[in-house]
Design a protein that fits this description.
The chain is mainly α. It has six helices and three strands, in the order H-H-E-E-H-H-H-H-E. Strands 1-2-3 form a three-stranded antiparallel beta sheet, with no helix packed on it. It is globular.
Length: about 100
């Protein structure tokens, strides 16, 4: 779904970078959990997102192929964007990457 977010932001190269991410570490390669270090460009784009852009971006993100298939609504996407933005601002301010933890 983060690829859909990058596409909604108009960042096709970032979407490609997200698609090509390999886990930085994992407990079991096949079963996970996995930890990914997200691209700094995603962190920075989220950290600098203007408040007036959130609603429009949420609508575009929720219309993405995977996001739509998973039932992401514009309202839920907007809430996620606010939460992700807060994390991105904090990570950027501390000079840290954003991490994604996934599990089956």
């Amino acid at each position: 779904m983060l690829e859909d977010l990058a596409v909604a932001m108009g960042r096709e190269q970032l979407a490609q970078a997200i698609q090509e991410l390999d886990p930085s570490c994992f407990d079991d390669e096949a079963q996970g959990p996995w930890i990914y270090v997200l691209p700094v460009a995603l962190r920075d784009a989220l950290a600098t997102l203007a408040p007036q852009e959130v609603g429009k971006l949420a609508k575009a993100w929720s219309a993405g192929e995977e996001a739509g298939a998973r039932g992401l609504t514009p309202l839920v996407a907007e809430g996620l964007l606010h939460a992700l933005q807060a994390l991105a601002v904090r990570a950027r301010g501390e000079g840290l990457p954003m991490l994604l933890w996934m599990s089956l």
